[in-house]
Amino acid sequence: MTRDFHDSSGNVFADLGFKEESEQELLKAQLIVQIYKLLSESGLTQTEAAKRLGTTQPQVSALMRCKPVSVSVGRLMEFLTILGQDVEVTVKPAAHGNTEQGSGRLSVVVRSEPQTL
In what residue span(s) does the HigA2-like helix-turn-helix domain sit (predicted)? Predict the structure, then answer.
């Protein structure tokens, strides 16, 4: 039996064929991981966390299970600020001056470990 292996692009969503939404989905996943870490370290119940975040307990439950949720990137960034994190958005020209549609990229950079609440 032979197995084919392929190098990852670094984005599991793109590797799985979700080309159109891959950057957005990876960005959301990275933000959700940070929210998960903060909530895990906080000791808050899901109900308490939902109240603090201004959302529902089922939504917090989905976040804590890293399940896809219908929450925008903007709302996830708002959750992080509510949890005491600074969130920066940097807009700059795409690498190599490439200005074709879709040539830019989205990314999350975590500068330090999240602080507990």
Answer: 12-92
- On the CB side of 66, how many CA atoms lie within 13 Å of its CA? 12
Contact indicator for 8, 15 with CB cutoff of 8 Å: yes
The structural domains of the chain, ordered by start, are 20-92 (1.10.260.40)
pLDDT of residue 92: 82
Those residues with Cβ within 8 angstroms of residue 62's Cβ, 6 or more apart along the chain or in another chain: 68, 69
- CA-nearest of 4, 7, 22 to 106 is 22
Length of the chain: 117
Tokens of 65: 């299970």
**Number of other residues whose CB lies within 10 A of the CB of residue 83:** 22
Q: Span 2-7, mean pLDDT? A: 68
pTM of the entire predicted model: 0.70
